[in-house]
Amino acid sequence: MIHIYGQERWHDSVGIVGTRESVEALRDALSAALQVSHAEMQDFVNDGEGFEIAIKVVSEQVMHQMAVPYSSEEAKEPTDSKRIFPA
Known about the structure:
This protein has a domain of 55 residues. Helix content is 26%, strand content 25%. The radius of gyration is 14 Å and the shape is globular. It starts with a strand and ends in a 22-residue tail after the last helix.
């Protein structure tokens, strides 16, 4: 079980809270992504809803083209943006 609390706006902290088993699975997925440029894992939040974590390793050039990850209306990327949104 793992919770990932994302940024609502600029300078907000990101939080990852999980059971030892889930945090170790995330570590293993990150290690795998460093080897082959991508990895996925599945987990769930404490209400039982499952989700997938997709990890992609990209170049700095690609990172500069990515949409910002903020979720608040004032800070999030416009939907008509030319930036790359994660798949």
